[in-house]
Design brief:
Blueprint lengths: L1 H17 L14 H33 L30 H34 L4 H15 L3 H12 L10 E3 L3 E4 L2 E4 L1 E4 L3 H29 L5 H19 L4 E4 L2 E3 L2 E3 L2 E3 L1 H27 L3 H9 L4 H31 L11 H13 L2 H30 L5
Antiparallel strand pairs: 1-2, 2-3, 3-8, 4-5, 6-7
Helix pairs in contact: 3-4, 3-8, 3-11, 4-8, 5-8, 6-7, 8-10, 9-10, 10-12, 11-12
Membrane topology: Multi-pass membrane protein
Family: Belongs to the binding-protein-dependent transport system permease family. HisMQ subfamily.
Subcellular location: Cell inner membrane; Cell membrane
């Protein structure tokens, strides 16, 4: 019995020892997928570096053959040309660096104005497209289909040449209360001149904005805790308007106005909004708003109908349902696409060169480049500026998008 048990244990062990040894698990280095992938990436990187080095060397050789020096020293040289719209002090004796700042500020101005106007118009039209009013819905649909399908450059040219250039001359200006004038030279409005004590009004405005934000946060927490809703918008508007107005009156109205006057063939005094800015702003705002309207419509329609029915079942009005139930949920769909439209608007502002608006491309990558010949440096700076602006806007929108996402527990 004992011998049989030992035999039953030894035989399998002997047969296992007699089996041939498996092949070695060692694989040559060149046959490993990870090693091959590393080699391929290294070769591609080396090829890219070599290509860039060849392009840079070729560019430097061409510049040297033409007698063009490289570097950014030209930024300190005198520009010698005028710019029709400047948000900072500028003259013909200013440097190219000053020209760059002027063009950058003009680009940021029209981009910011366009984003605000396009957002307001787009949301209004997008909501109107879903209105039960047949006429309003069809008008909104017509707006989208018309302006979305006409190229932006054509719209810019239309507003500039067909509308604004058809306005009367300065002597036959369209006027409002003899204070605001509209003519072929642009829109002329009185210029505000702050005097002593105006700082109190600005301080009151800052305090009012901070107080309205604090009140909004308090109202949100109160509603989450008790369900009681406070009139946040009305109270906020009252603080932002009322407190600075009160400070303005108490300080003795420390603000005077320089009225525009027609002298010769043009107006003197006041602030002139050039027609190039007006045409570009209108075209960018309306064109982008047609896309935003479709984004808003699709975002609202993505919200389940049960949400609307439930809100109406508990007695919420249509206005509150839209603001408190539908729009907050629709923003999860709207914000990512809205970011793309904002970036497109900023980049499309470079079409301003078609009508002579002095943006970054026109005054820096245009006139400055033609005068200095520093093509590589100027184009590189311009590309870096647009890249920085776009990444900054994208980062801000991503932060806002993260706040609109559904918080899972």
């Amino acid at each position: 019995m004992m011998a049989r048990a030992l035999r039953g244990f030894v035989e399998p062990l002997r047969s296992r020892l007699a089996m041939p040894k498996p092949p070695s698990s060692h694989v040559p280095l060149w046959r490993r997928p990870a090693f091959r992938a590393l080699i391929i990436q290294a070769l591609l990187l080396a090829g890219l570096v070599a290509l860039i080095a060849m392009m840079v060397g070729n560019a430097l050789s061409n510049l040297e053959a033409r007698g063009i020096t490289t570097g950014f020293g030209f930024l300190g040289e005198r520009a010698g040309f005028s710019i029709p719209q400047t948000l900072i002090d500028y003259s013909g004796d200013s440097t190219y660096a000053r020209t760059f700042v002027v063009g950058l500020l003009n680009t940021l101005l029209v981009s910011g104005m366009g984003i605000v106007a396009a957002t307001i118009i787009g949301f209004a039209v997008g909501i109107a497209r879903l209105s039960p009013n047949w006429v309003l819905a069809r008008l909104a649909s017509a707006f989208v289909e018309i302006f979305r399908n006409i190229p932006l450059l054509v719209q810019i040219l239309f507003w500039y040449f067909a509308v604004l250039q058809a306005l009367p001359s300065p002597r036959q200006s369209l006027s409002l209360m003899e204070a605001v004038f509209l003519n072929v030279r642009g829109l002329i409005v009185p210029a505000p001149v702050p005097e002593a004590g105006f700082g109190l009004t600005l301080t009151a405005l800052v305090i009012a904005i901070a107080a309205s934000i604090g009140f909004a946060l308090y109202a949100r927490r109160l509603q989450a805790r008790t369900g009681k809703a406070l009139p946040v918008y009305w109270c906020g508007a009252a603080m932002i308007i009322g407190l600075p107005l009160l400070a303005f009156v108490v300080s003795g109205a420390p603000l005077s106005w320089v009225m525009p006057e027609l002298k010769g063939f043009n107006f003197r005094g006041g602030v002139t909004v050039i027609p190039e800015l007006m045409a570009l702003w209108l075209a960018l705002s309306i064109y982008t708003a047609s896309f935003i309207a479709e984004i808003v419509r699709s975002g609202i329609q993505s919200v389940p109908k049960g949400q609307v029915e439930a809100s109406r079942a508990i007695g919420l009005s249509s206005n509150i349902t839209l603001r408190k139930v539908v729009i907050p949920q629709a923003m999860r769909v709207i914000v990512p696409q809205l970011t793309s439209q904002y970036l497109n608007l900023i980049k499309n502002s470079s079409l301003a060169t078609a009508i002579g608006y002095p943006d970054l491309v026109a005054v820096f990558a245009g006139t400055s480049l033609n005068q200095t010949g520093q093509a590589i440096e100027i184009i590189a700076i311009t590309m870096a500026v647009y890249l920085t602006i776009s990444l900054s806007v994208s980062a801000l929108m991503n932060v806002y998008n993260a706040r609109t996402l559904i918080k899972e527990r």
